[in-house]
Design a protein that fits this description.
Layout lengths: L1 H15 L6 H14 L3 H13 L1 H5 L5 H16 L2 H13 L30 H14 L12 E5 L5 E8 L9 H13 L4 E8 L14 H11 L3 E6 L38 H25 L4 E7 L14 H6 L6 E7 L10 E7 L5 H6 L31 H22 L1 E5 L5 H14 L15 H4 L3
Parallel strand pairs: 1-8, 2-3, 2-4, 4-5
Antiparallel strand pairs: 1-2, 5-7, 6-7
Length: 471
């Protein structure tokens, strides 16, 4: 650390003594240093120096502007790293107390009936859901940063080593989907390592029993396998039906659209919902919590994860998964968390759909997303809001990812996994160590995940060999 401190001290002094210290030049130098370091330790050393020693250097300077520039540059760099987020959030997470819940303002009788006995309390659904959501992920004692360097592989009884991927809410199997590009990645990069990829497509469109993420045997099997360290990678994007900001749009028709069911202040459901709306909200919350529970279990047992959701809305009153405490406080405490802000139209989507890709355990990978953009694509004028000419909601067009976007997701995820394998090696999970029921589910789900639906190509694009050469 002393050698690193001396290097950073000298670099900063040279910048100041250059005669005309330029803020952008310092920012470029530090960013170049961060990007050139492939290990977490080197990045942490830079952040540790900035937090504990940088001010010893700049406190003696005569230029207030130069001091302000240095502090701002370091702040810009630090806030873009997952490790800095962990340091900043860790204390708040470890000292977490149950969050305060706003008064729902439920109507009460002005005068109690004298002849009646005690009344049944009106349930506070927001309080109940908030308690349960935090408890499901915190009762395991998981509030500790996890940095597991070895990549997790699974060895089947025939001796073959597999990199197992759990793809939640995958949709139907189709040409050009994530499974297609995972197979292409295996052919190009994994074969010479003696590895194969086993990608489990979890969705009721694949199998209404095996792919069911409601509490039951299938979910139990997934959690057991995750706790055994079977999954090297988890991908997912839970349904955004009840979270969508499109519910706030006014439709250009005489028919009113579905109203908002959540808000930023009440993310688990606003007050006075109908029975049907309560069911919708409960289902949406359960599916999102299942995704997060599986992600937490995968990450705390040696894997990496990735989740795709629409970008956070600009209106601060709208609900968003990204605004709930689980994302802002709990997940950054477990593993390095990075958010990538992506435009799907650059990857072949038919409309503008700002998207956030949040990863746990992976490095920042904007350059990989850029390398997978569709060549020559023009930005569409349409947005996914309101109704189309046939009277259907435009958001339906975005339920399946474009083929080029699937390739980008797989390239980012598996590049990070293989980089970790090359640097740190692997830890093998033997099939013989797995429970009988969970092992049986694994093989049945794998068999179901290989069946391709040939009815319609994703995004109406055929997949050519030139496409495959770009991964």
């Amino acid at each position: 650390m002393e050698e690193q401190r001396t290097k950073f001290d000298n670099q900063l002094e040279e910048w100041y003594q250059s005669g005309a210290p330029d803020r952008e030049n310092l920012l470029r130098q530090w960013r170049s240093h961060i990007e050139s370091q492939s290990t977490k330790t080197a990045v942490m050393a830079f952040l540790y120096w900035g937090k504990n020693f940088m001010h010893d250097v700049i406190d003696g300077w005569d230029s207030p502007q130069a001091i302000e520039d240095v502090i701002q540059c370091f702040d810009d760099i630090a806030r873009s790293t997952a490790i800095w987020q962990i340091w900043c959030d860790r204390e708040a997470v470890l000292n977490w107390r149950e969050p305060s819940v706003p008064d729902l303002g439920m109507p009460t009788a002005k005068k109690a009936a004298a002849a009646r006995g005690s009344k049944e309390n009106i349930p506070n659904s927001l309080l109940d859901q908030t308690r349960k959501s935090w408890r499901r992920l915190t009762e395991r004692g998981l509030l500790h940063m996890i940095i597991a360097d070895q990549c997790r592989f699974s060895k089947m009884k025939d001796g073959t080593r597999y990199l197992v991927i759990l793809h939640l809410f995958s949709g139907r199997r189709r040409p050009g989907d994530c499974g297609h590009w995972a197979a292409e990645f295996e052919r190009r990069y994994c074969a010479h390592h003696g590895l194969k990829i086993m990608m489990l497509a979890i969705d009721t469109a694949i199998d209404d029993q095996l792919g069911n993420l409601a509490p039951g045997r299938s979910l139990t099997a997934m959690l057991e396998l995750a706790e055994c360290g079977v999954f090297a990678l988890g991908l997912g994007g839970p349904p955004c039906e009840t979270w969508s900001s499109a519910r706030h749009l006014l439709l250009e028709s005489n028919h009113g659209g579905p109203r908002p069911l959540r808000s930023s202040e009440m993310p688990w459901g606003i007050q006075f919902l109908t029975a049907r709306e309560l069911h919708q909200v409960a289902t949406g919350s359960q599916l999102m919590m299942t995704e997060l529970e599986l992600e937490v279990t995968i990450v705390t047992h040696g894997g990496d994860t990735m989740m795709e959701r629409p970008e956070e809305p600009t209106n601060q009153d709208f609900a968003s998964v990204w605004r709930i405490g689980l994302h802002r406080h709990l997940l950054p405490s477990l593993a390095p968390m990075v958010s990538h802000h992506v435009q799907q139209w650059k990857h072949g989507a038919c409309a503008v759909k700002p998207t956030r890709i949040r990863t746990l355990g992976m490095a920042r990978s904007y350059h990989i997303f850029q390398a997978n953009e569709t060549p020559g694509v023009q930005k569409p004028e349409s947005h996914l809001g309101g109704l189309d000419s046939s009277g259907k909601f435009k958001t339906a067009a975005a339920k399946e990812y474009p083929g080029d976007f699937c390739r980008a997701l797989i390239d980012v995820a598996l590049t990070n996994v293989m980089r970790r394998y090359v640097q740190y090696g692997s830890k093998i999970v033997q099939e013989a160590q797995l429970g009988t029921d969970s092992c049986a589910w694994l093989h049945r789900m794998w068999a179901a995940s290989t069946v391709i639906d040939p009815i319609r190509l994703n995004g109406n694009r055929t997949i050519s060999r030139s496409d495959e050469s770009r991964i």
